[in-house]
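hiii so um. not sure if this is the right channel but i have a protein structure encoded as tokens and i wanna go backwards to a sequence. like what aa goes where. can anyone help
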């Protein structure tokens, strides 16, 4: 299956300043803005916001 440009791979960086990141895919057609998810940061030991970086 070919990779699509409508679902690119994005990196989510922690807003806690720990330098942790997640990698995920997003649908650019449904979510054209930057993605923000609340995920677990093991370095901080709690759930924090992770923002998409480009």
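sure thing!! here u go:
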């Amino acid at each position: 299956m070919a990779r699509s440009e409508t679902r690119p791979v994005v990196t989510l960086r922690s807003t806690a300043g720990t330098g942790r990141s997640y990698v995920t895919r997003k649908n650019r057609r449904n979510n054209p803005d930057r993605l923000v998810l609340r995920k677990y940061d093991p370095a901080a030991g709690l759930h924090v916001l992770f923002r998409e970086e480009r």
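oh and The first strand starts at residue 9 and ends at 14.
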